[in-house]
Amino acid sequence: MKKTTEESANSRAHPADLTTLPEWSVFEQAARSAKVDTSRLALINAAGIDLDISGQHASPALTEAGIALLEARNFEEQRRRLLEGDIVNITESRAAWHTALRAPAPKPEIAAERQRLFEFIHTADSKRRWRNIVHIGIGGSDWGVRLAVAAFGYAGTWRNVHFVANIDGHAIQGGLSGFDPHDTLIVMASKSFTTAETLENGRRAREWLEAAGVADPASQMIAITARPEAARQWGIPEAHIFKLWEWVGGRFSLWSAVSLTTALAVSADVIAGMQTGAAAMDKHFAEAPIAENAPVQMALSGIVNRSVLGYGSLNIAPYDFRLANLVPYIQQLEMESLGKSVDLNGASVKVPTGPAVWGMPGTDAQHTFFQWLHQGSDGAPVDFIICAQADHGWPTHHRILLAHCLAQRQALLQGKSYEEALEECMASGMPEDQARWLAHHRVYGGGRPSNLIVLPRLSPYTLGALLALYEHKVFVQGIIWGINPFDQWGVEYGKQLASGLTRELSGEAVGGEGYDASTRYWVDRLKGLQ
Predict the structure, then answer these.
(1) Is the pLDDT of residue 256 over 50?
(2) H/E element, 318
(3) Do the Cβ atoms of 44 and 295 come closer than 8 Å?
(4) Which residues contact 243 (CB under 8 A, 6 or more apart)?
(5) Considering the chain, what percentage of its residues have pLDDT values greater than 70?
(6) Per-residue pLDDT tens over the stretch 457-508
(7) Does the pLDDT value for residue 4 go beyond 90?
(8) Are the CB atoms for 89 and 337 separated by under 8 Å?
(9) Phi and psi of 230, rounded to 5°?
(10) High-pLDDT (> 90) share of the chain, %
């Protein structure tokens, strides 16, 4: 890994305010002049995934302006620093070297930890141990594992897995319910091993094992952390502590030992396949020309949609039941990374950054919020995601699913004019005055931006490539906006306040005079009711 000293990080000049760059002015003007052209077909193949960006605003001038803007933002050097493990997380003086975890020939310490993980899995599988797994983690220590287990274990596995993230006691109560304590493995994933939710839920799990008469509860507990000393102090045996590194951000920890639960639930081959797919996307990101670089082109379209056209959100629409957890996974990746309004110089960013990310699988989404996407006053860009081939035995289902996805995207792209709607109404035999009135309600604006991402089929390889595609897209957007996509200071203040409020609600402390009137009222009212 490259130098990671604070001095070397701070010695580098931070990028200028985006809006002061002449390249931004040209890009903005080109973006406002560009349109969604329904006669255009623009496809990029990256690591076996097809990305169709035909539904985005485009023009030759915008393409040229995007390349110039990336050059002005020193994109190639920033990309090199990311992929070579140099400092890119400036505010914490760290690398963000998650790509090293999936490299085909990883560094010795990574390879050694990977080998330890696979040996543990092999032993557990060969002895048919741990019929049940309780995975305790939150945020990046939870969503990626949920996603992979649901994607490849949707039809059931011989191990039962419960996920516990929330501090709400109902979560851990439900997570432990129905399991035999003597055949249950508790997996605690926390980079810092100070995460309040994870440690408190871990204590309840340990008490549950003890209450059931498990002679050595620690032998049925695993810790995955960047602070192994904290896990040892907590009582986890050395052989059951798997290492993270400080240069692995929590929302990128899927590629690490955090995926132990994934391997136990749906096999170690899933981890290996996802790492291979992600590494292939890393290679594409590193080598493909800008115009054919899938993460870069997605990033540039995202900048147009958010910072120029003013769309406040991004909808994720995976048309695959198995990818339901992809939505919160990308939601965390994008909103924790890009939810920033201050640039690396400490100045306010003068254009809108990180959109709100939301969604659910199709076709459920069509019956929930697609009305808003089609005819709402705001609308949102949509990332449609499909698998060309299904893994079930009902081809009719899959044809209908694909047809619905393509139809919804076509409606967003093409729209329907008042004249077309009126003609339809009149053709149905409706009286003219009623047809002229009703036609207004059947107009679709059209021209609403979207991507179509096509996986040949859902496999560990393609899922890994898909996740890396979004990771690199987010990184490029951070470069253009001049923000740090690898820290998350915004959540820290609330955590600090919660610590003091917890003590006061439990009667251990008296709050200061810093409470607002509403908080003071509710602390007094709720104190002692638990």
Answers:
(1) yes
(2) strand 313-318
(3) no
(4) 113, 224, 225, 226, 228, 257
(5) 97
(6) 999 999 999 999 999 999 999 999 999 999 999 988 998 899 889 988 988 8
(7) no
(8) no
(9) -70, -40
(10) 91
SS3 482: coil
Which parts of 212-259 fold into alpha helices (H)?
228-234
pTM over 0.85: yes
Q: Which amino acid is at 310?
A: G
pLDDT at 385: 98
Q: Phi and psi for 528 in degrees, rounded to 5?
A: 85, 0
Per CATH, the number for 103-266 is 3.40.50.10490
Q: How far is 404 from 526, CA to CA, in rounded Å?
A: 49
pLDDT at 228: 97
Distances (CA, A) of 11 to 116, 346, 447: 39, 15, 45
Structure tokens at 366: 């069509």
Cβ of 460: how many Cβ atoms within 10 Å? 23
Burial 183-202 (b: 16+ CB within 10 A, else e): ebbbbbbbbebebebbbebb
Q: Which amino acid is at 420?
A: E
Q: Residue 424 is encoded by which pair of tokens?
A: 């339809």
Residue numbers annotated as active site = 336, 367, 495
pLDDT of 10: 44
Q: Residue 23's pLDDT is what?
A: 98
Q: How confident is the model over 179-237, as pLDDT tens digits?
A: 999 999 999 999 999 999 999 999 999 999 999 999 999 999 999 999 999 999 999 99
Q: How far apart are CA 117 and CA 340, in angstroms?
A: 36
CA atoms of 386 and 409, how far apart (whole Å):
12
Rg of the Cα trace of the chain? Answer: 25
- Residue 172: which pLDDT band, with cuts at 50, 70 and 90? very high
- Angle, vertex CA 39, rays to CA 477 and CA 444, nearest 5: 80
Q: How far apart are CA 54 and CA 451, in angstroms?
A: 7
Tell me which DSSP letter residue 416 carries: B
**Greatest Cα pair distance in the chain:** 82
Cβ neighbours of 332 (radius 10 Å): 19
Q: Which three-class secondary structure state does DSSP give residue 62?
A: helix
Q: Which residues of 344-367 are buried (b: 16+ CB within 10 A; e: fewer)?
A: beeeebebbbbbebbbbbbbebbe
Q: What are phi and psi of 238, to 5 degrees?
A: -55, -40
CA distance 47 to 356: 27
- Give 56's DSSP letter: S
Fold annotation for 6-93+276-414+448-481: Rossmann fold (3.40.50)
- Look at residues 382, 362, 364 and name the one whose alpha carbon lies nearest to residue 373: 382
Residue 245: other Cβ atoms inside 10 A:
19
